[in-house]
From TrEMBL:
Keywords: ATP-binding, DNA synthesis, Kinase, Nucleotide-binding, Transferase
Species this protein is from: Parasphaerochaeta coccoides (strain ATCC BAA-1237 / DSM 17374 / SPN1) (Sphaerochaeta coccoides)
Listed EC numbers: 2.7.1.21
Protein name: thymidine kinase
Signal peptide range in chain numbering: none
MF annotations from Gene Ontology: ATP binding; thymidine kinase activity
Superkingdom assignment: Bacteria
Biological process, per Gene Ontology: DNA biosynthetic process
UniProt KW Methyltransferase keyword: no
Family per similarity comment: Belongs to the thymidine kinase family.
Alphabetical list of Pfam families matching this protein: TK
Xref: InterPro entries: P-loop_NTPase, Thymidine_kinase
Amino acid sequence: MPHTDRSLANGDATDFLKSLGFPSVTVHETFTHFDFTSPGRRVLLIGPMGSGKTEFSARVWRDAAVAQKKSDVVRRLTATGDVDRRKVFFIRSELDATRFSGYPDDAMAYRGGYIRCGENIARIKDSFGLEKVIEDHPDIGTYIIDEASFFDERLVYVVRNHSMQRGVMFIFPTLILNFRRDIFNSTARLMLDMATDVIPLTAYCEHPDCMKSAFYTYRYYQVGDKECPALYFDPLIIVGGDEHKVDSFQPNYAARCDEHHYLPGKEYTFFHLKPMGMMAARGEENPLRSELGALKGNIGKSLLYRNLAEGTPDGLQREMFLNSLLPANIAEKALAYLFSEQNLVPEELLVRLVSELELDREYLQKVLEDNRRPVVFDQQLLFS
């Protein structure tokens, strides 16, 4: 008998059910178990913070536990050589050690709970660490790599090679967009290029007055009772815990819709800050030094304040944009951005400006190390 496509569009399905005497309902796609039979998949789970990416991964883990109880007949469907995709291993970045300090060492933690991974969990620093884990576990067929955008670009090619050559499946619960609503970094861009599947997840906008879908991760500081959006040039990576913080140094994150995702300082970054960095790279340091001095000691005299105060119309957005000036170390963040992301300020000038302006060395040292541009500020002795 020839195969007949019996799939129905939602409207057709509703009419069909009515013809059988059922009430009118909206028929949604089936929420299915995870597929471990297809070899070599590279699955991106994308969405803002709080959208359930790691919780989805926990579902995969639980589905795998059920699938592993099946017979050897099933293994022929889920295995490629020695690799069995029902065997799952969870990988996190070493940077995340402080985020989950309240959980067991073997926990795959997510908002509202966690599952225990036993020995099938590791923290790695980079793509070489991933290679070592794979080498040590030749029978593992599925790797869940949390926040893969935090790793080096080489990891993407390690993943591609093992998936294509050995049938290993990789799942990436990760941010593709950063808090600036830009592609997170070049690793994220390469991951999009090599993915075979993309599963987008959303969340409710976490603004208290909103129920829209949120697609973006919003970074803000809680200074007293004020919500202070992160400036555009805030460090790309800031390592910290997931709990809410009232802190001028450590940010919070929320899923937000377009309307409630505030991002002050973007125009300033490209109209003022970056050009001053380019001038400093050519030896014209005074404009940058003057602006950093104002950001540190008298922000009302800075170009940043003028840009936000004069360039934003009255109303809630203006209030929120001006709140962005309340968190600490804005000068340090501006300088770190020019050094670690734009590669405009040479290390010698960075160290000298930190010394001359008495900037927060401890803060800068940690931020630059987390963003993979470590600097030793004791070099100031060379210029004294």
